[in-house]
Amino acid sequence: MSAAAAILIAMLIDAALGWPDALYRRIGHPVTWIGALIHALEANLNRGPFRRAKGVAAALIAIAVPTGVALAIVLALPDGWIGTVFAGILAWPLVALRSMHQHVAAVAAPLARGDLSAARFAVSMIVGRDPNRLDKAGVARAAVESLAENTSDGIVAPVFWGVVAGLPGIVAYKAINTLDSMIGHRTERYEQFGWASARIDDLVNLIPARLTGGLFALVSGHAQRALRVVVADARHHRSPNAGWPEAAMAGALWIRLSGPRVYERGVSDEPWVNATAPDPGPADLSRALRLYRHAMTALAAMVAILAVTGW
Prior knowledge:
Elements: H1 3-17, H2 21-27, H3 30-45, H4 51-76, H5 81-91, H6 97-112, H7 116-124, H8 136-183, H9 195-204, H10 206-220, H11 223-233, H12 243-253, E1 257-258, E2 261-263, E3 266-268, E4 272-273, H13 282-308
Antiparallel strand pairs: 1-4, 2-3
Helix pairs in contact: 1-5, 1-8, 1-13, 3-4, 3-8, 4-8, 5-8, 6-7, 6-8, 6-13, 7-8, 8-9, 8-10, 8-12, 8-13, 10-11, 10-12, 10-13, 11-12
């Protein structure tokens, strides 16, 4: 069974359908199932002494259980194209091509017509900062940053690990990424317990983040400019990985990103990415979505080549 072919099937189904609301209401979503396991582990283990060790154990359990289920399913699938198609269908909900575009487009539309209140509400669905403190440029910047970072975390990384290790690979990645999103925060509650989850997530995103930045640069028509910004600014980002796709997008569109931002917990004084460029506006958000579509088309083409060549 070709892992690349299965992942290509998953990408095509998701691009066409997303994850329908009716299906979500009926059965939920695999990420919510993984999230329920993580919540149970956190509620029972994140207390008392040795919280870092308990966090390591929780992370290993939360990764091993769904990955083991995925491996058992793969071993039970028939050989040949039937097994590949079934694997692709099972991987489908773990690739968020359509929903990523929909969430950012939901910010772009009201921002373009001057409805700042609606744009703030839409952007609050995809970022953690205080939307009431964002002006038009702040909303556009937050949405572009989310698009860049989540293209890596939500699409390129699961596709990468799915191609490398099939259905178990993509499931393991989603478990790791869900761990990081739920408990990988530097807060008093999760500083120790979420330490392992955050470090594992950093590790598995090293290659995908750089691949995402390369894709943005490649399809932008301004590859040299985008890569110059990546070389100059990616390493200054608070994340060892998010700076790569964000810097590539900032250079490709010639806008500035990152910088100081306000969260409920306070102000985070982050350095600017591509500081000499202007702030993004509504038109830049539409340009970012177009760049995203081109990059995802290029990614699908790469996976198709691997599938056809039988990698």
